[in-house]
Amino acid sequence: IATGTSTSDGSVTSSSTFRVDVIRRPTTIVYTGALTADYHDPAALTAVLTDTISGAPLPGQTVGFALGTQSATGSTSVTGTAAASIVLTQAPGPVVLTASFAGSATYQPTTTAPTFTITRAQTTTASIGPEVILQGASGVTLQARLLEDGTTAPVPSGQTITLSLGGQSCTGT
């Protein structure tokens, strides 16, 4: 509540009381980042935050990203773009992704929730056992190496590999 006073030559000519309601401006957030990434790889998350009425970007605001059970935050740039990265440790499949702005004294909160898909990591398998096996040998030990993205052992360890030779096969971890 505020009181307004008008004066003419130093004397009060009128006085009134009025109420001012400050309304927070609506905001819009648009997710612009990746919608899929491999397990155990980083997911590049980006979103653009704008003033809904003017369309102007909102710099210096915090945007939260929640990807399934993992989360990160990013601060908006002069273009209203916030960015974050999350290394995916959840099981492959679809997960809910939310990009949200909690609001401020000037701006209303907003959220968007596209579906994100975590895909299986690429793996390679290579035989590291014997390359020549003599006919009539009483036994042979087969070995293989499983690598994620061609360079590192998979996480979690203990993955099962089936090894075959002729009509026989066995499994190993």
Helix content: under 10%
Beta-strand residue fraction = over 45%
Q: What structural class do the secondary elements suggest?
A: mainly beta
Shape: rod-shaped
Low-confidence stretches: none
Helical region count?
Answer: 0
Biggest sheet, open or closed, and with what strands and sense? Answer: 6 strands, mixed
Query: What is the H-and-E element order?
Result: EEEEEEEEEEEEEEE
Total E-strand runs: 15
The overall pLDDT, averaged over residues, is 85
Query: What is the rounded Rg?
Result: 30 Å
- Terminus-to-terminus distance: 74 Å
Which descriptors apply to this entry?
single chain; 173 residues; mainly beta; six-stranded mixed β-sheet; three-stranded antiparallel β-sheet; 15 strands
